[in-house]
Design goal:
Number of helices: 15
Distance between the termini: 28 Å
Shape: globular
Structural class: alpha/beta
Order of helices and strands: EHHHHHHHEHEEEHHHEHEHHHE
Strand content: 5-15%
Length: 355
C-alpha cells in the first residue's frame, strides 16, 4: 500500500518557524521603504499578505513590457525570501537517528488520530482492510510504503523524520504498523521538494498563465511554475507527481491548497477519480481552543477543508465531466476526502508537530 504525505507551510509554523508570508513581509518588505523594487512598493501599498505568489501574478500588469525590471524585482524578492528562510531553518534542532525513527513510526501508526467523525473513521478502517485483502488475495506481501512531499523550502522533515538517507535500518519492533493490520513498514528514500529548497533551485510563481495579469512571454517564463520547472535540475516535481498517481492514501497536512496549488489539487482529484478505492485525509489546524462540538461546527469545518476541491472541479468543465462519468459525481468524490481537525492542545506528531 502506497501513502503519500503532502506537507505545506502549516507544518513549519506548528514547529515554531516564522515562515509565513506575513512574517516575511514584516521582517523584510515593510522595512525597505526606500526601495526602488516595484513589487515591494505595491506590497507596501496593499498591506495585505495573503498569497505572495498569487499577488505577484496580479502585480505583473504594472510592468507592461518592462521584462528586465520585473525579472530584477522578482529576483531580489526571492533572494530576500531565501535569506529569511535560511535564518528560520537555522533554528531547527536536528533529532538523532533513534528519535527520527520514533517520530516516523509514531506518525504512521496514528494517521487516523485526528479524524473527527465516526463515519470518516469507519471509512478509513474498512478501506485499509480492503487493501489488505487485495494484497492477500494476490499473494503480495502486505507492505506499507510511506513517502513525504513537502511544498516548503526548509529541511525540517529531513531533520526530524527518518528516511533511507539516514542509512540505518528500522528496529524489528518498528518494522510493522498495527494501525494498518501489521503491515510491514517501508521507509521513504528521501523527502521530495517539488518546489525546490533553500540551498537549491527555487520554484516560485503562479500555477498557470491565467493567474498572470501580464501575459508577456518572458514574464510567463519567469513566473509560471510549469515553465520554471522546465529549467530546474531536480526531478522532485516529476517524482512527486508519480507518487501521487500511485497512492492509495494521500495525507495533506498544513497546506492551504490555494489557487497557486491547483496542480496538486488536480493530482489528488485525478487519483480519486482513477482509483475508486483511494482515500485522502486533510489534517486541518483550528487556531482556537477545542470548541464544544456541534453538528453544525463539524459540517462547517468539513466543508471548508473540502472547498478547494469543490472549487477546482466546478471551475474545470472537463474535470467535472470526468468526475460525473467515472465516479457518479462530486459528492462521491468528496465522501472519500476525510477530515481531521486538531487544535493547539491536541497538536502532536500526527500533524508533524515535533516536540
Amino acid at each position: 500500500m502506497e501513502i503519500s504525505v503532502l506537507v505545506g507551510n502549516g507544518v513549519d509554523l506548528s514547529n515554531g518557524l516564522q515562515t509565513s508570508y506575513t512574517d516575511f513581509f514584516k521582517a523584510k518588505i515593510e522595512k525597505k521603504t526606500d526601495s526602488n523594487n516595484r513589487l515591494y512598493q505595491l506590497f507596501q501599498k496593499q498591506k495585505r499578505w495573503s498569497d505572495m505568489e498569487e499577488d505577484i501574478g496580479k502585480f505583473s500588469v504594472h510592468y507592461e513590457d518592462d521584462v528586465s525590471k520585473f525579472e530584477q524585482d522578482k529576483e531580489e524578492l526571492q533572494d530576500d525570501l531565501l535569506d529569511f528562510l535560511q535564518d528560520q531553518q537555522n533554528k531547527i534542532t536536528a533529532s538523532n537517528v533513534d528519535k527520527k525513527k520514533q517520530n516516523f513510526y509514531d506518525f504512521v501508526n496514528n494517521l487516523d488520530a485526528h479524524l473527527s467523525t465516526q463515519e470518516d473513521k469507519e471509512r478509513f478502517r474498512t478501506t485499509i482492510a480492503h487493501w489488505k485483502s487485495i494484497a492477500q488475495h494476490q499473494k503480495y506481501e502486505w507492505e506499507l510504503f510511506v513517502n513525504f512531499i513537502t511544498l516548503n523550502y526548509t529541511s525540517l522533515l529531513e531533520q526530524k523524520l527518518y528516511s533511507e538517507s539516514d542509512d540505518e535500518p528500522l528496529d524489528s519492533s518498528q518494522a510493522v504498523v498495527p494501525l494498518f493490520y501489521n503491515a510491514a513498514l517501508r521507509t521513504p528514500d528521501v523527502v521530495l521538494h517539488p518546489h525546490g529548497t533553500i540551498d537549491d533551485y527555487m520554484i516560485f510563481g503562479v500555477d498557470s498563465i491565467s493567474q498572470l495579469e501580464n501575459h508577456n512571454a518572458d514574464i510567463t517564463k519567469d513566473s509560471v511554475k510549469s515553465e520554471l520547472i522546465k529549467i530546474s535540475e531536480s526531478n522532485d516535481f516529476w517524482d512527486a507527481n508519480e507518487l501521487l498517481s500511485d497512492s492509495n492514501l494521500i495525507v495533506v497536512i498544513g497546506a492551504s491548497l490555494g489557487k497557486t496549488d491547483n496542480h496538486w489539487i488536480n493530482g489528488i482529484v485525478m487519483q480519486l477519480v482513477e482509483n475508486p478505492d483511494a482515500l485522502v485525509i486533510i489534517d486541518k489546524f483550528i487556531e482556537q481552543k477545542s470548541p464544544r462540538k456541534s453538528a453544525l461546527a463539524v459540517r462547517r469545518s468539513h466543508a471548508e477543508s473540502k472547498e478547494p476541491f469543490v472549487r477546482y472541479v466546478r471551475s474545470h468543465e472537463e474535470v467535472q465531466t470526468l468526475v460525473e462519468n467515472k465516479i457518479g459525481g462530486l459528492n462521491n468524490l468528496l465522501a472519500r476526502i476525510l477530515v481531521g481537525n486538531f487544535y493547539p492542545e491536541t497538536s502532536n506528531i500526527v500533524n508533524l508537530d515535533f516536540k
